[in-house]
Amino acid sequence: MNSIFDPIKFGAIEVKNRIVMAPLTRMRSKQPGNIPFELNAKYYEQRASAGLIISEATQISQQGQGYPATPGIHSPEQIAGWKLVTSAVHKAGGKIVLQLWHVGRISHRSHQPENQLPVAPSAIKPAGGIYSATWKEVAFETPRALENKEISLIVADFKKAAQNAKEAGFDGVEVHGANGYLIDQFLQTGSNQRTDNYGGSIENRSRFLLEIIDAVSQVWGAERVGVRLSPHGTFNDMKDDDPIALFSYVLQELDKRKIVFVDLIEPRSTNAGGGEGNVEDAPDAAKIFRKNFSGKLISAGGYLPKTATEAVESGKVDAVAFGRWFIANPDLVERIKVGAELNKYNRATFYGGLEKGYTDYPTL
Fold it and tell me: Is 181 marked active-site?
């Protein structure tokens, strides 16, 4: 029986425990330029007792941005900024991988090069809205459908971003294929109505993700590459006609490529209502899809210390990722170990700002 405090190998990445810091968008990059800086380095360094830190989602190009003050990995200044972060984490004894991100239609023209429309597999407007570059709440726009020849250019952007991540000193990368962003938009029928070789069948809709994985693995080797997926997620207006068939195929193909881990998001009752725990009658993603993937499985979404410990000890998952609890508890690993009370998080300080609600949470 494995303990949540046991070390584990994520391929070539050896980590000291099975408590993972989930990727968390905080919108605190230095402006202009979306550059990580000293405050970000301090934030990650405080949480270096995690077995593995998965960085906040980081855009691979200007076109990939959808929110204000989110970091990139496509300029020399951004690479230098991330070096501050990786150096601080490594000095504190931690391991960190960079999450590679393209938001697709979950954007606004104010974030885009030359004020262009956001791009997507198909010209389907998602419900809801987003923050513009000036932090104004705006409705989503109808995106422009990508031309076939443009798709290979975005795959190349992912590969270049992976190279930049290596230069910045990361221990590996996670490809963001979840939560309704560009890769997920290609995967699911609710957002992909293409009739070319990137649309229609499950195999075609999965092609974009798998091309990205192949490209990124050329840079890092599969033993330092992971993927985040959200098979039953509805965030960002996502839906699919047959998610079990789709994600079973995706995981089988990822398994063939020997990537080191899949970071699987469990359905949660709400993203904003304050409720804790997973939905009572929601599908158990880890249980459903475990048989399709022989690599390491990280489970995320609604976990508490007790339920995370049970999930690892039962063998259902190899590690558990915490998000909100890591925001409020830099020393989360120690608190779980000694059974200490957890700091409450403050949702009002999740996005934007500086130290408040970011680097000022108390430790034991």
Answer: yes
Residues 6+ apart with CB under 8 A from 83: 168, 169
Strand partners, 263: 228, 298
Nearest C-alpha neighbor of 25 from the set 340, 337, 336, 324: 324
Is the backbone of residue 274 left (phi > 0), alpha (psi -120 to 50) or beta? left
Interval 268-280 mean pLDDT: 44
Q: What is the pLDDT of residue 25?
A: 98
Q: How many C-beta neighbours within 10 Å does residue 141 have?
A: 17
| Of 246, 282, 240, the residue nearest 265 (C-alpha) | 282
Q: Are 204 and 198 in contact (CB under 8 A)?
A: yes
Q: For the chain, what are the domain ranges?
A: 8-349
What is the number of helices (H) and of strands (E) in the chain? 10, 14
Instruction: Tell me what pLDDT residue 281 has.
Output: 60
Answer whether residue 279 shows pLDDT above 50.
no
Task: Give the model confidence (pLDDT) of 116-149 as tens digits.
Answer: 999 999 999 999 999 999 999 999 999 999 999 9
CATH topology of domain 8-349: TIM Barrel (3.20.20)
Catalytic residue among 131, 181, 303, 358: 181
Residue 174 near residue 227, CB atoms below 8 Å = yes
Q: pLDDT, tens digit, for every residue of 221-234?
A: 999 999 999 998 88
Exposed, middle or buried by CB within 10 Å (0-12, 13-18, 19+), for 83? middle
Residues 6+ apart with CB under 8 A from 101: 57, 58, 59, 60, 64, 176, 181
Rounded distance between C-alpha atoms, residue 75 and residue 60, angstroms: 10
Beta strands in the chain (DSSP E): 8-10, 13-15, 19-21, 52-59, 96-101, 119-120, 129-131, 137-139, 144-145, 173-176, 225-229, 261-265, 296-300, 319-322
How many residues belong to the chain? 364
